[in-house]
Design brief:
With 140 residues, this protein is α+β, with helices and mostly antiparallel strands. It has 2 domains: 61 residues, no CATH class; 54 residues. The strands form 2 sheets. It has a 3-stranded antiparallel beta sheet. The protein has a two-stranded antiparallel sheet with strand order 4-5. A hairpin with a 4-residue loop joins strand 1 and strand 2. Helix 3 runs antiparallel to helix 4. The radius of gyration is 25 Å and the shape is elongated. The model has no long low-confidence stretch (mean pLDDT 94).
Length: 140
């Protein structure tokens, strides 16, 4: 199948679907024809820290843009919330068993280790934009 690339849209188009694209008003004016090898290169998973971009009107793997300070903070907050939710899910049954006095000493020790982990997560300052040292998961 003949494949085309639009630098302005940074998107691939199948030439066989031109009529449909035109009918929808989505047929760019800057399309170039790609060889099979060019197309296959850019439909696979990108290399680490790269994404599909444009260089000289052609598809290229380009470096991912640096995150802004606010994006880094938001990413840190999101990770913290995810780790807290996962940890709280792990301890839920142990908490119930503790409440009804049906917890083994082994599980009580695990619960306390996970509670320490949750405390460490909650105490973390996610407003850091540098490298964050996340607490280690409790040993199983």
């Amino acid at each position: 199948m003949k494949m085309l690339f639009s630098a302005s849209k940074c998107t691939f188009y199948a030439a066989a679907w031109e009529e449909s694209y035109r009918a929808a008003g989505n047929w760019p004016n800057d399309l170039i024809v790609l060889s099979d090898s060019q197309y296959k290169e850019f439909i696979k998973r990108p290399p680490p820290d790269k994404l599909l971009g444009v260089e000289n009107g052609k598809p290229a793997w380009v470096s991912q843009p640096q995150l802004t300070e606010n994006e880094i903070i938001a990413k840190n907050v999101s990770k913290k919330m995810q780790l807290l939710a996962e940890a709280k899910s792990v301890i839920s049954i142990w908490q119930t068993r503790l409440l009804v006095d049906r917890i083994s000493e082994k599980d009580k020790a695990k619960l306390y280790a996970w509670l320490d982990y949750i405390d460490a997560l909650e105490a973390m300052d996610t407003s850091e934009t540098g490298s964050i040292n996340w607490p280690d998961l409790p040993v199983a």
